[in-house]
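REQUEST FORM: STRUCTURE PREDICTION
Request ID: SP-0412
Submitted by: Lab K.M.
Chain count: 1
Length (residues): 426
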Amino acid sequence: MPGPKYRRRILDDELDELVTALPAIAVEGAKAVGKTATASQRAATVHQLDDPDQRALAEADLDRVLASSGPVLIDEWQYVPAIWDRIRRAVDAGAPAGQILLTGSASPKDTGTHSGGGRIVSLRMRPLSLAERQDRAPSVHLAGLLTGDRRDVSGETDFGLEDYTDEILRSGFPGLRGLSGRPLRVQLDSYVQRVVDRDFAELGHAVRNPGALRRWMAAYAAATSTATSFEKIRKASTSGNDTMPARGTVTPYRDVLERLFILDPLPAWQPIRSHIRELASPPKHHLADPALAARLLGATADSLLAGASTGPALPRDGTLLGALFESLVTLSLRVYAQVDEATVGHFRTHRGEREVDLIVERADGRVVAFEVKTTAAPRDADLKHLHWLAAQIGDELLDAAIITTGRHAYRRADGIAVIPAALLGP
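STATUS: Completed
RESULT:
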């Protein structure tokens, strides 16, 4: 029986451009985001190193792996870290463009491998963005906003707050898109359980107290879309009368989860040319997929829409639904920005008097600023930080927009674009 038809990803556009000129490309990201399916579209030979038999063959003869009919896909290369240096040498020896593709669901540590800089190019793959989950093409494009010409925006969607809530819970992992209800919840639980029971061990870290790790992950999930300190997350992970976990216990949690791409923190934006003072530098907290955060917290559609918070208590401006919606928009915007050769950060002054949810930065330092609100009709008060930022950085601000749960895209009289999340794409 033939498998399901491949659904093209935004990352395919990057790969199509790069494989014509670069000999070795590594596609990295959390398990189940679709790396193997995407890379396989370009491969003549696939070596799956998470399979013990294929891994043993590769360890016995790395040259045989690379001598396969190309393009060669080395899937889950981190199981045989020595292959990275072997590929680097193959590139130095003149491997042709598009010859080697790698996928990896973990970043090895202390393997002695060369960084691969200048030889192996890494691309990050994330779960499905909102644009990739829909059959309808977006009507507003990040690439257009990044031109700075303040063009008109338009479009209409039938997506509402309930639909975005459903998308938060459904997950952007391609293999889970056909599931709902209990089967989906079981799969998400299984995903987290594999991280705790197997993935930590495969990276050489023994988890002595799996319950403590799960509680820390739930506390991190509760901090979604905030810059809450890791000390507060540590304190929030204490359950009942349990002793608070030591810093030396929880620090490896963060390290390993980042290496597994389960944590996907959003860095603070540091302006190149402006002189804004007292900038805060901590990242905003995000898991790879907001569905994981919702599941770790036991959130449901009913609880989210009712404005209820579940899981560990941590300070947050607004509702849990608002935080998870911002996380979904952040995930999507990072996918769009990557193909547009831009980066994404967040902006916050030291005491939090001024903050902007998302800053997309071009290579020349000029930016587009976004606020994210679970509202259909933004108020002037929702835009005050965008106006303040415009006054601070002037022409460095290419455009400004507020991402909403509304139905229509348009540009306000003050020049700020109002864009429903479902209408935005690369």
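NOTES: The longest strand covers residues 397-404.
Reviewed by: T.R.
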